[in-house]
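Methods — Computational structure assignment.
A single polypeptide chain was analysed. Its primary sequence is given first, followed by the predicted tertiary structure written as structure tokens.
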Amino acid sequence: MSGAEDVPYDGVVEDSYAAGPGWVVVARGELDQDTLPPLEEALTAAADRHPVVVLDASAVTFGDSSFLNLLLGVRRTTALRIAAPGGQLRRLFALTGADTILSLYPDVRTALDA
């Protein structure tokens, strides 16, 4: 029987790179308390080093309250910009009122240029 340490988390963060005035973190898949640690690590490290962090959420298919909590925490330490959130994330943000707090953009380029 496999333990929790055997769950592959590494696929949640697809890429991270410098771009324009900040840092872009590309996430994908379902983001919940079980899959969130690599994204949390990537966003926290980026926020510690860069004044602007863009989360490319175009390939994120699901986010839960732990994902939302992470975003709200990261935005306290850097200018966090969420690029290309899909329908499920937009619903999550709208239902919780986070869409009035988080900075949402249609794509990465627009988020970087803001």
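Note: Strands lie at 13-19, 22-31, 52-63, 79-83, 103-105.
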